[in-house]
Each structure stands twice: as C-alpha cells, then as structure tokens.
Inverse folding.
C-alpha cells in the first residue's frame, strides 16, 4: 500500500524465487510486527510521540518515522495508513513541520482536522494516542518553494495552513530574503490552527507579514475581498501558493488573474476532492471488468472504483480523491473522464486512477 | 438433482443470501486477526522447518523439519493462498492479502489458478465437459464419459496425480486432452507454457537447488526433506480436493441443465455437487476449511473460518428445501472417492454388476 520501491534488483529476484514476492523483507513482517512494530519493512512505520490539541477539532501528531524514511521538502504531503476494524485505510495529509526538524530530531508533524462524518480523521482523533504506530508512505507533491528566493504570497483556508506552516518554518530557518505574506482565512478566531507558532514566526522572521481573517466572527460572512489582495505590496511579482477549500481557491484565483497574475505563478494544492462538474448525461456506460469476467452498466457520474465496489469487487484503493495512486490500474479500452481535471482520456490502453475516472461510454478495465 | 421450480429456487436464493448478508455485516477485525494469526503460523513453520532441515542428519530433527515445512506449505496453499485468491480478504485492503496480486507457494501460477479454479470450476461446478476439475481430464468418474480400455489403469493415474499434484495443477490449463484431440494448437498455449516454466522453475529452484546448495555439506538431507515436504502437501491437498466433489453422492450436471440458469439454480448445483467431511479443528484448518466444501461453494468469497459457524444454517436451509447435505467422516468420504475411481475404471457392464444395489432387506 505504502510500498517502498528502494529494493535492490538482485534482492527482488531472490524474493521472487524464495517467497514469490518482489519485497522479500515483507515476508517476515507478520512476525516482525509482533516483536516490534517499528521493524516492519513493507511500509515505513512511524510512532506517535506526542499529540497536541490545536483547536477544538484539530490535532497535531508528532511522529517519529523509522530510519528508512527518505525525508521531504516543505509543502509536500504523505499517505498514512491506519487499520480500522480490520480494514486498512490510506489518507493523504500535508506535513506541517519543517524538513529541518526531521533532519535534526527525526520528527515530523501532521496537523489533522476532524472532517464531519469522515471515518479516518474522526478515528484518528478518537483512538490514536502516544506510542501507537501507523504506516507512512514517502513524501510526494509539487507544491514546493521556488529554488531562487522570490516574493511570495500564501493564501490559506482552515486546515489548508498545514503545508504552508512547513514552508514558513523552512523559510524562517533558511532566512529566506524576500517579502513573504500570509493571508490566512479561518471561520472564527477560535479556529486558528497553530496560532502561537504563527505569531512566534512573525516576530522572529521579519520578512513575514501575517494577516489572519476570520470569515464568520460576525453575523455577516466576510470572504476574500479584492482589497485583501491589493494590500499585498508588489502583488504582481509574487509567487502565489494556495491551499484551502475549493471555494476560496476558485475565488482567489479569479481575482488574482484579474489583477494580472499569470497562471504559472499560481500554485494550488487540494485537501479535499475537488469536483469538476460533469454533465451527467454525457458520462456513464458499460464497464467491463476483464479480470473478473464481469460487466456492469453505470449511469451518471459514478467513478469506476465505486462502480466496481457496487458490483461486489474490492479493488485496491487508497485516498479516493486521486492523490495516492493506490487504485491505479490498466484500462484496456474505452474513454474515461478525469474528475480532477475534467479532461477526457484517449480511447486506448493506459493506466488510470479508478477513484477519479468516470466512464464515458463502454470501458474495459483489467480488474 | 432434485427438481425445483423457479419459485422454489428464488426462495432458496433468498434464504442463502440472508446467511451471506449476516456474515458480511459482521465481517471485520475478528476476521483480520484470524488470517494474520494463520499467516504468522505459516511463517513460523516455514522458517522453523528450513532452519531445522540442515540438522536433519539427526533422524527426529529430520522428521520434525520435514513435517514443519510440509505443514507450512499445506497452510499456505489451503488456508491462505486458496482463500486469499478467492477474494475472501480483499476488503482488508492489505496488499499482502489481495486476491489479484497474491502469488502462492506452488507450481501453478496464481493467474492460471484464478482462471481455471475461480472462474471455470466455481462457475461450472461438476458440469461434465465444462468443469475440467471434474476428474482433471485424467480420471473417469461418471458414465458421462465413454469407457475405453485405458481407463482400466486409472488407479495408477490417480496415484501419479496425487503424488505429483502440484505439477498436475500447474499444467491443468494446458488442456492436454484438447491438444490431443487437436481442438486447440500448441502455439495458442505458448504464453501459458512460458508462465508455467517460469513459476515451476522457480519452485523447483527454491526447494531442490537453492536451499540444498546453501547447506552444501548436508545437501542430500535438505533435498530429501524438501521433496518430502512437497510430497506431504501434494498427498494431503489432492485428497482434500478429491473429497470435495468426487464422493459417492456428489452429483454431476449436463450443459443443457445449466443454460441460462438462475442464481438459485446455481446455488442448488453448488449444494448438490459438493461434499463435506467432519473432523477436528486442525483438520479444518489444514484443509483450508474445504472440509466445508458445500459452504465454500455456496459462498466462495466469505472468510473460510466462518464456514463452521454458518454450517448449521446452511443445513437448515437444505432440510427446508429437501436437499441432501452430503457429509460424513473423512475416512468414509475418502473411501467413497477411492471406490468411485475404481468403479469407473471398469466397463459399465462389469461396474453395474459389481455395484448393483444391495438386495432389498427383508421387511
């Protein structure tokens, strides 16, 4: 699931010969796990060292990954794996700490907000405690700081602050010499995540301008306004990084473009599946699961993972929002629409992510 | 097979679906814990067997090592491999226990097994001409196949099949009988043969080359022990599988009977074409719970350790619909399998005279 692909070719060969698997070390995992959960080889185990309450519905987990973990760049995210009632779940979270903390103390942090009705985030809040061990994947993601310092504007909404916290910590530690502004939108002033840390950063790192805006402190909601952006000096020259709810990011993006910023200088990362509105008449079709000799027809914008599950299959899967690629599999024919991008695939053979692929006409997948 | 009308079949279907739904609703941590415990048992036995084997020059150690390795292969093939590949644990979302990627410790490739066993055998169970598992195209087990003198020797064939079972299962998809009849060409089987050679070579390399070589001074002992362990597994798993469908009362079906059949009819065929045997907890574990072959055929993708728990309910459904629930002690069921193999090796006339019904008892 959070498979490590660092194994040597020769080891892989021997693994196939002796254990019928590519990752021979994982053959011993069931026993190693009993002895010490931190010795597991299939994924990187990470032990919870501390749990910090940030707000009423947000916690920060301080984790110590096992030695084999390869580290990360500020702004990247990781998949974590937890087991709930016998079922493994993968979810993707941004790392909220700086790479320096990992290098110096071997620690990383994840800042996780309860999603109303969310199985995994609520379980993490209610059941995960110090000393528990979870699975960790390698860091990934292109939401990264420019290599040469340029003026930067961060726009964060709610728990979308997490990757930006990591970036700010890194910039402060490296003494990043260019103006840095953070526009941080929260629901009410009680919902500010990592308030103390942000204030401490602002006071010791003079390049940083902090602007926290509560949208629901008064009766009348106060969303992102043109003047929020206009108050940022030298806006046009800034590299913009956004993370937050889809509504905020769409609003910010259109206003930034109206101010003359080019799309290549606007970087976004999602923390919830963004739904491209699909015309439900043009999607759906007969899906053939060739490996299972099964054919089902689907109407509307159900993705192939949902279609397979409704047909009684259980394909491997992870985040269900197009991030982790656990559910990638071979499409042998047919056209699918990608939910994330709204783009239509070619008709031929290719790998697709089941959880964001909606069939458009007949599709064959190798499941 | 008893005749049931469509309404009765629909009722049978909903009765069995209710049992299935009950298990699905309860499926969770207990099942995950169970299969992980079995995986740990397998790893312990395999590692223990392999570590002890070089010390096999001490006779009791040789026996212990061979037994441990044999048991590990049995558990891996029967309770883990076979069941995982049926998708019994797919819901756990654990890549090591997923039906589509699991590769088991035997010659047959998992891909070939999923095609011949999961699809052909479980869909067309005991349909003569469609279920190639019925007699493995080597044995004549019903009068649907015309007798010829070659069948006189089929007990020898049976012995060979059971001793070399993993190789027999491995080449099953070759469809040698159809190649002989020139219905298919060797060329069409090339991709299969390549895969077979790769997996078979791998299994032989591991047990008969690699482990003997790295323990060079005692190589003959390790080789003998590994051959012994494979033999134990072959004998046991073939016996379990034969007891599942070839017992006296296990029924066979024709292709016409099954054309456009309903799910209820499929259920009925699974119930009447399969047979159980009784025994202790260990017998069930070592047979991968195929001792509950009936339950397995009705619900191939429910975690197998649940079969003993639902057996009573399945029996109740059978009683309600007047369907024979075929079970008996291991010795009795195996006895009827051997009898069947012997009986159908004889020309029909001789067989009928020998096995004609016992004279009616005096009232």
């Amino acid at each position: 699931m959070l498979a490590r692909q660092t194994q040597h070719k020769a080891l892989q060969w021997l693994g196939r010969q002796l254990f019928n698997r590519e990752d021979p070390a994982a053959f011993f995992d069931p026993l190693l796990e009993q002895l010490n959960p931190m010795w597991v080889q299939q994924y990187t185990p990470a032990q919870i060292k501390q749990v910090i309450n940030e707000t009423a519905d947000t916690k920060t987990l301080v984790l110590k990954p096992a030695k084999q973990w390869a580290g990360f760049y500020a702004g990247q995210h990781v998949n974590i794996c937890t087991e709930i009632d016998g079922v493994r779940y993968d979810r993707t979270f941004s790392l909220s700490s700086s790479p320096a903390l990992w290098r110096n103390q071997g620690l990383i942090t994840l800042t996780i907000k309860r999603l109303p009705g969310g199985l995994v985030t609520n379980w993490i809040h209610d059941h995960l405690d110090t000393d528990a061990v979870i699975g960790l994947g390698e860091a990934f993601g292109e939401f990264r700081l420019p290599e040469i310092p340029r003026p930067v504007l961060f726009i964060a909404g709610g728990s979308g602050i997490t990757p930006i916290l990591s970036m700010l910590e890194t910039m402060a530690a490296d003494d990043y010499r260019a103006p840095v502004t953070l526009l941080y939108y929260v629901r009410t002033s009680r919902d500010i995540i990592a308030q103390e840390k942000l204030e401490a950063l602002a006071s010791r790192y003079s390049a940083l301008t902090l602007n926290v805006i509560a949208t629901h402190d008064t009766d009348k909601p106060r969303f992102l306004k043109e003047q929020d952006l206009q108050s940022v000096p030298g806006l046009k020259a800034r590299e913009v990084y956004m993370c937050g709810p889809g509504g905020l990011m769409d609003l910010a993006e259109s206003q930034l473009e109206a101010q003359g910023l080019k799309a290549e200088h606007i970087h976004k990362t999602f923390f919830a599946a963004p739904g491209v509105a699909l015309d439900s008449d043009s999607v759906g079709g007969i899906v053939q699961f060739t490996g299972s000799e099964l054919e089902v027809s689907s109407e509307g914008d159900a993705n192939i993972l949902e279609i397979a599950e409704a047909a009684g299959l259980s394909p491997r899967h992870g985040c269900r929002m197009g991030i982790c690629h656990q559910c990638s599999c071979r499409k042998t024919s047919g056209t699918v629409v990608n939910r994330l991008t709204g783009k239509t695939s070619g008709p031929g053979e290719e790998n697709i992510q089941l959880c964001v692929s909606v069939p458009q006409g007949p599709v064959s997948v190798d499941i | 097979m008893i005749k049931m009308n469509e309404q009765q079949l629909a009722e049978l279907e909903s009765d069995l679906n209710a049992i299935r739904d009950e298990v699905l609703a309860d499926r969770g941590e207990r099942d995950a814990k169970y299969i992980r415990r079995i995986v740990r048992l397998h790893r312990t036995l395999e590692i223990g067997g392999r570590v002890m084997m070089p010390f096999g020059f001490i006779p009791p150690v040789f026996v212990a090592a061979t037994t441990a390795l044999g048991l590990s292969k049995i558990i891996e093939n029967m309770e883990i491999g076979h069941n995982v590949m049926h998708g019994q644990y797919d819901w756990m979302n654990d890549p090591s226990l997923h039906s589509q990627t699991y590769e088991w410790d035997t010659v047959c490739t998992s891909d070939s097994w999923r095609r011949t066993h999961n699809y052909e055998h479980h869909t067309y169970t005991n349909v003569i001409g469609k279920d190639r598992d019925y007699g493995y195209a080597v044995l004549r087990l019903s009068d649907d196949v015309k007798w010829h003198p070659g069948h006189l020797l089929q007990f020898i064939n049976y012995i060979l099949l059971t001793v070399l079972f993993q190789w027999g299962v491995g080449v099953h998809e070759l469809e040698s009988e159809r190649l002989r009849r020139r219905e298919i060409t060797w060329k069409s089987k090339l991709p299969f043969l390549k895969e077979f050679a790769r997996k078979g070579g791998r299994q032989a390399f591991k047990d008969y080359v690699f482990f003997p070589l790295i323990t060079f001074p005692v190589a003959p002992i390790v080789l003998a022990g590994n051959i012994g362990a494979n033999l134990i597994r072959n004998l046991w798993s073939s016996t379990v599988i034969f007891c599942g469908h070839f017992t006296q009362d296990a029924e066979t079906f024709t292709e016409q009977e099954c054309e456009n059949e309903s799910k209820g009819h499929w259920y009925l065929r699974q119930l009447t074409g399969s047979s159980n045997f009784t025994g202790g907890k260990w017998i069930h574990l070592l047979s991968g719970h195929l001792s509950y072959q009936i339950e397995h055929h009705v619900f191939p993708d429910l975690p197998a350790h649940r079969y003993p728990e639902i057996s009573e309910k399945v029996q109740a459904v059978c009683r309600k619909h007047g369907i024979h629930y075929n079970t008996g002690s291991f010795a009795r069921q195996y006895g009827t399998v051997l009898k069947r193999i012997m009986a159908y090796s004889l020309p029909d006339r001789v067989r009928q005279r020998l096995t004609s019904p016992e004279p009616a008892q005096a009232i």
User: Anything to note?
Assistant: Chain A has a mean pLDDT of 89. The first strand of chain A starts at residue 44 and ends at 55.
